[in-house]
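Exercise (ungraded).
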Amino acid sequence: MKLLEEAIREKGTVLPGNVLKVDAFLNHQIDPALMQKLGAEFAEHFTSKGITKIVTIESSGIAPAVFAGLALGVPVVFARKKKSVTLKDNLYSASVYSYTKQETSDISVSKSFLTSDDTILIIDDFLANGQAALGLLEIAEEAQAAVAGIGIVIEKSFQQGRKLLQETGVEVYSLARIASLENETIQFVRED
Amino acid sequence: MKLLEEAIREKGTVLPGNVLKVDAFLNHQIDPALMQKLGAEFAEHFTSKGITKIVTIESSGIAPAVFAGLALGVPVVFARKKKSVTLKDNLYSASVYSYTKQETSDISVSKSFLTSDDTILIIDDFLANGQAALGLLEIAEEAQAAVAGIGIVIEKSFQQGRKLLQETGVEVYSLARIASLENETIQFVRED
């Protein structure tokens, strides 16, 4: 998605260790107009899939997910990263290892908001090693919900996430695919 | 706001200890169409205030904030509840005590995204004891940003938050004001 690639080029910064920082429009400061366009793009791509619900993870997945939900006319559920006081029982949960933070955390979704009647679209801000999305797939499986696809804002295509997700048979649709961050230069995957 | 009060009555549940659970449309599952209307209402109310940026806190403030940001044509910054790996230095921060969780956490905003040139609208999902909003006011003060007002989705008017915030001289605009949750019955403040 050209508009997103431009935003990444203009406002993203590459840090050592292949870290792409997009705090200026996605992960800390949010550009609502851009998020609306990303959400609309996800909605258009998955429009014929009979989606009943969007599932994402707090916090950076929420903005693109709510705009996709608005465009598709479906609710959004965000998985929580740790159990909250008012959400103790009645949970689907999965463990997610973060390579960035080098720690394992639990993500969880209330059983009230995900059932075997649902066909879900998973949306997340980044796909790198795929652990967060795999955790959401695990939760969908616990709920016996169908998964129509996975929508990713920024995919680091040089890491293993896409491969791991595709091995599950689920479609992965990424709005920007980064081939390399070497030498602090952003190179996108060119699909001709 | 009538539509919000209806959603609270229909989908909210009252738990012991004056806890209002609105996980069905705000705090876990999100109703994007309702969020859009809440955001538009905030935008309309504060439209003449010269707002340059909306500041909220992850995670439940993000959805109403991004729709308000879209309507006002300004970016949204969400304060983080703990410091992340890629956001170490260069932060404004404040300590926030949560009566619900009975713990103190740090909230922080990057200095890159809040300056003395900004006039901000603070948006949050709940106002109870006011600690989160006071923390955001503290961050605004550190940044020497002007504060045009505080927009709250649901205010528990029987707790001290509104009083504490109003003592700072900042306008508090709440879309739903709850007078009482006694006997597990939701009573709204009636403003005639």
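Further reading is listed at the end of the chapter. For now, observe: Chain B touches chain A at residues 15, 19, 21, 23-25, 28-33, 35-36, 58-59, 62-63, 65-67, 69-70, 73-78, 80, 84-87, 100-101, 109-110, 112-113 (CB under 8 Å). The helical segments of chain B are 2-11, 32-45, 62-72, 131-143, 161-166.
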